[in-house]
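May I ask you to comment on the folded chain given beneath this request?
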Amino acid sequence: MDYTSQPFLFKAKKAIRYVQLYGFARTLAKVRAQYHMKKHYDQRPALRENADRGAHVGIIGCGNFAYNVVAYYLKRGPGAVIRGTMDRNIDRAISAFEDYSAAYYCDDAQKIVEDDRIDLVYICSNHASHAEYAIAALEAGKHVHIEKPHVVNRDQLIRLLAAAERSSGRVALGFNRPESVLGRKITTALAAQPGPAVFNWFIAGHRIEPDHWYFSAAEGGRVLGNLCHWTDFVLQLVPREVRYPIRIVPARWERSDCDIAVSYVFGDGSISAITFSAKGHAFEGVKERFAAHKGDVLLALDDFQELVIEEGEKKQRTRLRHRDHGHRDWVLNSYAMSERGGGRNQGCSLAYLWETGDLFLKTKQALEEQREITVEPYAPREAGMPERRSA
C-alpha cells in the first residue's frame, strides 16, 4: 500500500500507532522511506567522491528496506560509513546518497563492486539479483550482507556457495529475527531443555496486488520473499546434529505461496508448523505469534514485543517498550565482518549458507507440487564442492 496517497486521517492514525510500536525515531525513518521511494530529481546533485572520510560501505538496492533499516542503523551506529549507493532507479540512489551523506550514487552495481575503497556491501535489491550481486562482490574480495532470500533457485545456491568458498570475503544473511532480544531469549530457553520440541508460528502478512514484483516467477514468490524468515528460525532452533532428515508436509488451496501451512518433522522428532495468511491490509504491519514446548518449558511470543516463558512453577514475562525484530543488531553484526567494524564476525559457514537456502527452496517446491519432500544435510558433493573442504 502507498501510504503517502492515503487520506490525512489514515496517515495520522498510522503514524501515531507506529510511534507506540517502534518509537518516534524509527517511525520517522519509516515515514521518510515512503517519500524516498517517490522522489524524483530533475537535476542530479554533485558527487562527493574526493572527500575522503574513510567511508567504506556500499549499498546495492536503495529501496524502502535499505533506506529505513540498513542505512538508518549504520548511521546511528558506526556513523557516516556509506561510500556508494546504487539502485537501478537512480532517483532512489540519489535520495539515499543525500540523506545518508554518501560519497557517490550510481545505477550500475559494477561501480560498487570495483571500488577498492569499499570492503563491505549490503545487498538489498530485488530477490533474483541477490545472489548475482553477492557472487560478483565475493569475487572482488568483499564481505557481503545478503538480504533474504540469498538465492531464488538451486543453480544460484551452488554458485554462491562456490564463490563464498573461493573468496577472502565473508558472508552474512539477512535473517534478523533470531538476533532480536526476544529471539535470543527463545533460543537460550529452548536450548537448555532436553528432547524434541513442538513449534507453532502464525503469521499474518500484507496482502499485495497480483501484479506485485514478488509474484514474478523469477523472484521466487512469497515463500522465498517472506516465509523464509520463519523457515530459517525453526531450522536454527533444532540442533544441527539431530535435525536431519527433515520431512516437509505442505498444505495449500489454489495458490502455492499465500494462505498456506507447512509442517516440518525433524530427525529428532521435533515438529514445527508455520501458517502464513495473506488476506487484507494489516494496519500494524506483519503480525507474528509463536508458541513452543520443549522439556519443561512452554513459551509464547507476540509480535516480537512480548514473551512469556513458563518452566514449572516459574513464569517470566518480558515486554519491550517497542517491537524489536533484530534489525539493528543484525545490521551491526554484519558491519563487524569488516576491518573497520573490528572483524569480529567471521560470517556464516558454508553448511548454514546451503542448508537454510535448501530448506526454503524445497518448501517452495513442496507447496507447488503439493507433495512431501525430505531434506538432507549439506553434502559438499551435492553442492558441487570438493569433499576435502570443511563445511
Notes: Residues 177-324+349-375 form a domain with the Dihydrodipicolinate Reductase; domain 2 fold (CATH 3.30.360.10).
